[in-house]
Amino acid sequence: MIDVKDVTFSYAGAARPALDGVSLAVAEGDFLGIIGPSGAGKSTLMYAMNGVVPHYHQGEFYGEVRLAGADTHETSLTDLSHTVATVFQDVDAQMVAAEVEDEVLFGLENFGVPHDEIPARVDEALALVGISDLRERAIASLSGGQKQKVALAAVLALRPRVLVLDEPTGALDPASSRQVFSLLADLNERSGITVVVVEQKIGLLAEYARRLAVLDEGRLAYCGERREVLAHADDLLRIGVNVPRATTLSCMLRDEGFPVGRLACNVDEAQELIEGIVA
Ligand SMILES: Nc1ncnc2c1ncn2[C@@H]1O[C@H](COP(=O)(O)OP(=O)(O)O)[C@@H](O)[C@H]1O
Ligand SMILES: [Mg+2]
């Protein structure tokens, strides 16, 4: 669905590239988490996937990105937006309307969706993220978690095949963060939407993402099935990525020679693992 081939990108005037020879493929229906320390190039990689780089941010672009077969360099942002929807880091800046319903409507109108289809699409999108009851609320009166859901509903109304999100839980408390991820997992499983999410909270990625990509100073350090990637706990810590404690513990047990078949990604799995070893 997304094919990033040997992409190197430097923002205009920057001393070093923000992305340096990055190649990775995201299959249709995948759920990919992108992680790495601040400045590693996570947002830039996301922009390369949705065409914001190089269409909006100018600079030196080498390599190729294909989105559902289309070369992003040669396809307009408008055309790309029929395939990929984006929730940017600053949700407040992304909102254009004063009320929830209008926010969802606006995108549909802008997209040229026939007028008689719009009410049903608004209903569907609000129901999909579980905020039908917020329909007439002023966006300014909503909590961070609720705003995040409105931003999601507004892009889901466009029925994208790919959804990319930049740190969607950055401003949220743990409970709302989990809600957002469980919603993404649901959309991914039920509607088959391909999800790419930049996230700092490794615990959430370890639980919900199928695959993980780790960026380190613009280079792709790891990309693979989440447990395979988390198995490199020591190196991830060196890069500046915190690994869930359950995983660190499993790595320690593994390194001590205990039979660790599958690394634990959360507390329940760690308990299972330890009980297995004790037995
Ligand atoms: N608009 C920009 N202009 C110039 N340099 C930028 C711009 N945005 C990001 N950068 C630089 O590119 C690198 C990667 O940034 P970014 O992709 O935002 O990293 P992350 O999202 O992982 O924090 C950093 O060195 C950052 O300073
Ligand atoms: Mg960023």
Bound molecules: adenosine-5'-diphosphate, magnesium ion
Kindly estimate the percentage of residues that lie in beta strands according to DSSP: 15-25%
Q: N- to C-terminal separation? A: 44 Å
CATH topology of the largest domain: Rossmann fold
Structural class: alpha/beta
Briefly say what this structure is:
This protein has helices at 42-50, 52-55, 77-80, 91-94, 100-110, 118-128, 144-156, 174-191, 202-208, 226-230, 233-239, 245-255, 267-278, and strands at residues 2-11, 19-26, 31-35, 59-67, 70-71, 84-87, 162-166, 194-198, 211-216, 219-225.
Explain what you see.
- By secondary structure, the chain is of the alpha/beta class.
- The chain has 3 domains: 1-83 and 161-240, P-loop containing nucleotide triphosphate hydrolases (Rossmann fold); 92-159, no CATH class; 244-279, no CATH class.
- It is built from 13 helices and 10 strands.
- The chain has a 6-stranded mixed sheet with strand order 6-7-8-3-9-10, sandwiched between helices. The protein has a 4-stranded antiparallel sheet with strand order 2-1-4-5, covered by helices on one side.
- A hairpin with a 7-residue loop joins strand 1 and strand 2.
- The protein is globular.
- The structure holds adenosine-5'-diphosphate and magnesium ion (MG).
- Magnesium ion binds at residues 42-43, 166.
- Residues 11, 14, 18, 36, 38-44, 57 line the site of adenosine-5'-diphosphate.
